[in-house]
Amino acid sequence: MALNETESAVAAPAAAGKKKSVVKRYEGIICLVVVFGLFYYLGQQMGMANMLNTLMHTAHDLLLNTVFYLMGICVLTGALGRIFVEFGVVNLVERLLRPLMKPLFRLPGVASLGAVMTFLSDNPAIISLASDKRFSSYFKKYQFISLTNFGTAFGMGLLVMVFMVGQGYFWQPAVGFFGAFCGCIVSTRLMQVFIIRNYPNYLTEDVVAEKQQIAEEEEKEQKSGFIRVLNSLLDGGRTGVDVGLAIIPGVLIISTLVMVLTFGPSSSGEYTGAAYEGVALLPYLAGKINFIFEWLFGFGDPHLVAFPITALGAVGAALGIVPNFIAQGWVDGNAIAVFTAIGMCWSGYLSTHTAMLDSLGYRELTPKAILAHTIGGIVAAIVAHLTYVAITLI
How confident is the model at residue 184 (pLDDT cuts 50, 70, 90)? Predict the structure, then answer.
């Protein structure tokens, strides 16, 4: 009897290892089929030489004319954000926003600091705050986990809004910000419902056993105002460079692929291998259900659906599409408002949610967080569209 149990114990890991090996083999086959199928389709439509030239020329143009522009914005906004931190503007805004946290987001007042920090930087800024036990001691577990959704909805907000203003739109990004704010409420509270439904004990459990008061940072050494300004500008600008470098892969890879699937051949109707040519597959598919996007988001052209699709993975890449959309005449004020709302609220959450929840120690709740944030982003876009329509009718 004992021998049989021993043999079973030995056989179980072996069977599991064999099963994993089979799964990996099939994953490899599926990967090859998808990759070669995609390039075969593009090559058949465009010609292999034209396809390769278009991919390289598009990536090169995006690097020179979009990435470096975004990096410049990142440097300026990073410097501005650091100035705000150094001279207490962030703390002032946090105190002003604190009364909104409990009734709107069901979060303690200190969570407003996370919104400000992610707005000035990016989604992971909420994790650096959450790792501080003085900060996390104010939260119940269900509130603490929902910080992933809460912080993501404001990620790179300043960058998105400044970029849209740079394209010549001034009040429409503010409408988009309002939409993102509403989407954040839906995403955060929906995530909290999911958490409590699966883990009822998290409703009352504290994140930190012993409550600790958050102490104000004390200046350890006195510095002149000029030195503080200079250090803030340079340190913040250096952070902006890091963010600008970090968005290069997303912009070049995702935007290039999306643009090839979005745009059509040259004006002559032939493929020349120039940048921004493509097979127009996404508009074709979106055109089949464009009435949905037109009804929900007010999109007047099926090409515009490429922005929210790209924003799922990287908002920097999604912003890279906008100048070309404007040049083609597809974009209006409503589209800018919706782009700002969905770009801020989603801000590449598919590529960050897993890592963020993993760092918090709640990896198993990733599907719930993604579902809640997907709904929140759609709500953000709808609110932005309806608000824009209401304003234009006044």
Answer: very high
> Could you tell me the CA-to-CA distances from 319 to 60, 254, 289 in Å, in that order?
16, 11, 24
* Number of residues in the chain: 394
CB 114 within 8 A of CB 126: yes
Q: At what angle are helices 315-328 and 157-166 packed, to 10 degrees?
A: 10
As a whole number, mean pLDDT of residues 152-175 equals 90
Question: Residue 170 and residue 163: Cα distance in Å, rounded?
Answer: 10
Residue 196: CB atoms within 10 A of its CB come to 15
- How far, in Å, CA of 188 to CA of 185, rounded? 5
How far is Cα 143 from Cα 163, in angstroms, rounded to an integer?
32
Least confident of 60-64, 116-120, 340-344, 371-375: 116-120
Q: Is residue 109 packed enough to be buried (19+ CB in 10 Å), middle (13-18) or exposed (0-12)?
A: middle
For residue 139, what are the contacts with CB-CB under 8 A and spacing of at least 6? Answer: 107, 108, 111, 147, 206, 207
Encode pLDDT of 255-298 as tens digits: 788 778 877 888 788 899 998 888 888 777 777 777 788 888 98
Three-state secondary-structure class, residue 382: helix
Backbone angles phi, psi at 348, to 5 degrees: 70, 35
